[in-house]
Design a protein that fits this description.
The protein has 14 helices and 16 strands. By secondary structure, it is α+β, with helices and mostly antiparallel strands. The two termini are about 35 Å apart. Aspartyl-adenosine-5'-monophosphate binds near residues 393 and 394.
Length: about 475
């Protein structure tokens, strides 16, 4: 076959070489009948291609054909790499292609619902352009999501989903290296796994069933099945009935469950080392992607410590109190107090990533182990990035009768989870674990303002298509 060059790898080192690239005709600009500029985009990278009429190489007809291409059509371009005298505006690559041939592989319709160049601009650039009297359309979130395949073509989106892939990849690699086994638990289950109303109910061949709100029950059962340490990457379903910037009805859960020898701090230790390794590797291996995201949505790199800060819930309440914010010491933090605590922690400890543990038992799910020294508190934790929750975790109750009592007290129909409760009747290791929201990790690492930006095809209370 012929040799192809990726647009993103076109650099000055290739000057004078003949290359063949395939990508989108992002913009086409005719200077005259004899000359035209074509910006070709591939995976978010762009290169300027120059068509100049010259005998035996580029005909008037070819320039006409190129200038008649619809934006976003898929094209092949063959030509010679050249280095221009002045910097190129409007393309990521600082070399040009002097075109010899252009082929159209697949035509796009003449009028697009989204102009990719407009969709790729930052708010600041849009404001400036509008002030300068430029004609452009601010592409709103709903339009982006309605025409997601076009929206996904922007460099920032190309970056976001490559970063997301890396988060998943590091999660797996790290846990495998620590002796965890990857598992897959059922998503069709008989009873609610987290309690509450946020559950999609369905009919399972005549039996009541629901979509799993988490792998909680079965990941614990895998521990009863002697796998010792397990992890899962899979879909999680929540019938959220409100519309927020951080809740989806379907998201990707990164779940962990493990035996505990002495203390739930063993689980928090995994969180600490996993996330420090994850942040390090994102900063190291996703530089281009983070840059592309930051160009459209400017953000400061995440501040985190080499050893993750751990505060108790009581210490958190105290910090808030000192700042003049009174909250119920046995209640939960609301979104606002979580944010505020995030700011206070940053000021005092210089980190935007921290663990808050020993939550009041009353605000945690039924399977959470109470503290042995004071059962109003629990062996549980949440983890925050930039003042927002990305992880919940805990030691679990492994005593079946107590588990049944707790489930009942939390309003869960024990019959619907009886096989789960019974799993602990055959000897069960003390254990704990945690669940991470993948979309939230990417959203908050990049300080994005909406979880829909980090879900490929987001599902929220109003959206089930595309
Ligand atoms: P999870 O439900 O998975 O634990 P979460 O971020 O929703 O994650 P919660 O413990 O449910 O965390 O809630 C924490 C706080 O977030 C609540 O006290 C509440 O203020 C706020 N909150 C939770 N769900 C919603 C919602 N659907 N709409 C608005 N605010 C919410
Ligand atoms: P929790 O319900 O806190 O805990 O969920 C774990 C993590 O999942 C993410 N998350 C969400 N992301 C997007 N949209 C949602 N609607 C949504 N709800 C939750 C958050 C949250 O921290 N079984 C426990 C975990 C465990 O203890 O192992 C659980 O599901 O990032």
């Amino acid at each position: 076959g012929r040799e192809w060059t990726e647009v993103g790898s076109l650099t000055e080192g290739l000057e004078g070489r003949t290359v063949l690239v395939r990508g989108r005709a992002q913009t086409i600009r005719a200077v005259s009948k004899k000359m035209a500029f074509l910006i070709v985009r591939e995976k978010g990278f762009t290169v300027q291609c120059v068509l100049t009429v010259s005998p035996d190489v580029v005909s008037l007809g070819m320039v006409k054909f190129a200038t008649g291409l619809n934006r976003e059509s898929y094209v092949d371009v063959e030509g010679t790499v050249s280095v221009p005298n002045s910097p190129i505006k409007g393309a990521s690559q600082q070399v040009e292609i002097q075109v010899r041939k252009v082929y159209c592989i697949s035509k796009a319709v003449p009028t697009l619902p989204i102009n990719i160049e407009d969709a790729a601009r930052s708010e600041l650039e849009i404001d400036k352009a509008l002030q300068a009297g430029e004609q452009l359309v601010r592409v709103n979130q709903d339009t982006r999501l309605n025409f997601r395949v076009l929206d996904l073509r922007t460099p920032s989106n190309q970056g976001i989903f490559r970063v997301q892939c890396q988060v998943e990849n590091i999660f797996r690699q790290f846990l495998l290296s620590e002796g965890f086994v990857g598992i897959h638990t059922p998503k069709l289950i008989a009873g609610s796994s987290e309690g509450g109303s946020a559950v999609f109910r369905l009919d399972y061949k005549g039996q009541p069933a629901c979509l799993a709100q988490s792998p909680q029950l079965h990941k614990q059962m895998a521990i009863c099945g002697d796998f010792g340490r397990v992890f899962e990457v899979g879909p999680v379903f929540r019938a959220e009935d409100s519309f927020t910037h951080r809740h989806l009805c379907e998201f990707t859960g990164l779940d962990v469950e493990m035996e505990i020898k002495e203390h739930y701090s063993e689980v928090m230790d995994i969180v600490d080392r996993l996330f420090v390794a994850l942040f390090d590797s994102l900063n190291e291996r996703c530089q281009k992607e983070l840059e592309a995201i930051g160009k459209q949505y400017p953000f400061e790199p995440l501040k985190y410590l080499r050893k993750t800060l751990q505060l108790t819930f009581q210490e958190g309440v105290q910090l808030l109190k000192e700042a003049g914010i009174e909250i119920d010491p046995l209640g939960d933090l609301n979104t606002e107090s979580e944010r505020k605590l995030g700011q206070l922690v940053l000021e005092k400890y210089g980190t935007e990533f921290y663990i808050l543990h020993r939550y009041p038992l009353a605000v945690r799910p039924f399977y959470t182990m109470p503290c042995s020294d004071d059962p109003t508190y629990s062996n549980s934790f949440d983890v925050f990035i930039r003042g927002e929750e990305i992880i919940s975790g805990a030691q679990r109750v492994h005593l079946p009768d107590f588990l049944a009592t707790r489930a009942e007290a939390c309003g869960i129909d024990v019959k619907s989870i009886s096989t789960y409760v019974d799993s602990f009747r055959y000897g069960a290791p003390p254990h704990g674990g945690f669940g991470v929201g993948l979309e939230r990790v990417v959203m908050l690492f990049c300080a994005l303002n909406n979880i829909r930006k980090t879900s490929l095809f987001p599902r929220d209370p109003l959206r089930i298509a595309p």
